[in-house]
Amino acid sequence: MICSGLLPRPIALSCGEPAGIGPEITVKAWQLLKKSCPFFWIGDPRHLPDDTPVALIKTPNEAMDLCAQALPVLPLQFAGSATKGEADPKNAPGVVQSIERGVELVQSGAVSALCTAPIHKKALIDGAQFAFPGHTEFLAHLAGRSRVVMMLASPALRVVPATIHIALSAVPRTLTPELLREVIAITAQGLQTQFGIAHPRIAVAGLNPHAGEGGAMGQEELAWINDLVSELNTDQLTLTGPHPADTLFHARARAHYDAAICMYHDQALIPIKTLDFDRGVNVTLGLPFIRTSPDHGTAFDIAGTGQANPSSLIEALKLAQSMAQRSTQQG
């Protein structure tokens, strides 16, 4: 994920949970990217680490000139302070407002992309009656989209879970032909338009162990997944599977596809976090704008200690920039 060439508009970064590592890794990312990938932070400047050079802005465009000297901040006033490692529900409305402001700016064209720092869902539920399973679903709601796709991307692997934040017991009844068809279509389009892959190669994992092993370990593959994969394999899209998930992620297998579609959350996230934990990026496909996020949580246990690794946020910002550049070139 190479960051090259400045965009005409900066990237917006929503603050996420202020008691987590978000403020710390934001400053570390700014220190590395301030001259090559201008962005600004939406949040309460009181929550940033002490001695952070801050430039308060009123409009996103100001960040383009200021980012090289100080971290541009579009300020919001939160109700609470930020005690590292201890989420304060009083800050939840401000966290939600930061996301909403970022979406408003990217939809208006004032910024080139939106990057989101990690949130703490329980704090949002306790303090703001947050009604969504996670960032992805909330962004879909704000954008008015009934279906979006969560992709986890790194230099080693791209994966898409067809079902996301639901119990494992709910996966077989949630995973329908209609759902899988939409996930495949959105993933293929995203690979083409946002990753610049003209003829995507997508591998589909089986739902059951050994992809059902001819019906001995489950019927879904025989009942409909095999036929759906065959139907959607076209001149514009190379679609293979369903593959046994236990042999889909070694290096030789990964060389034959651009992304793998998995049937449930852990089937997708375990391999990418094992292969490339520090550089994984969460990308939401199917939105009318570019959104990336680091592929980790708030890490309350190390918040404020200086130990937080900013690599995933750095990769998220760089990927947002490269996707926005590609979109500008196509436009």
UniProtKB/TrEMBL annotation:
Compartments (UniProt record): Cytoplasm
Main location: cytoplasm
SUPFAM superfamilies: Isocitrate/Isopropylmalate dehydrogenase-like
Cofactor note (record): Binds 1 divalent metal cation per subunit. Can use ions such as Zn(2+), Mg(2+) or Co(2+).
Keyword field: Cobalt, Cytoplasm, Magnesium, Metal-binding, NAD, NADP, Oxidoreductase, Pyridoxine biosynthesis, Zinc
Residues noted as binding a divalent metal cation in the record, renumbered to the chain: H165, H210, H265
Catalysed reactions, semicolon-separated: 4-(phosphooxy)-L-threonine + NAD(+) = 3-amino-2-oxopropyl phosphate + CO2 + NADH
Cofactor: Zn(2+); Mg(2+); Co(2+)
Other known facts: The active site is located at the dimer interface.
PANTHER family assigned to the protein according to its UniProt record, in alphabetical order: 4-HYDROXYTHREONINE-4-PHOSPHATE DEHYDROGENASE, D-THREONATE 4-PHOSPHATE DEHYDROGENASE
Protein function: Catalyzes the NAD(P)-dependent oxidation of 4-(phosphooxy)-L-threonine (HTP) into 2-amino-3-oxo-4-(phosphooxy)butyric acid which spontaneously decarboxylates to form 3-amino-2-oxopropyl phosphate (AHAP).
Quaternary organization: Homodimer.
Protein name: 4-hydroxythreonine-4-phosphate dehydrogenase
Encoding gene, per UniProt annotation: pdxA
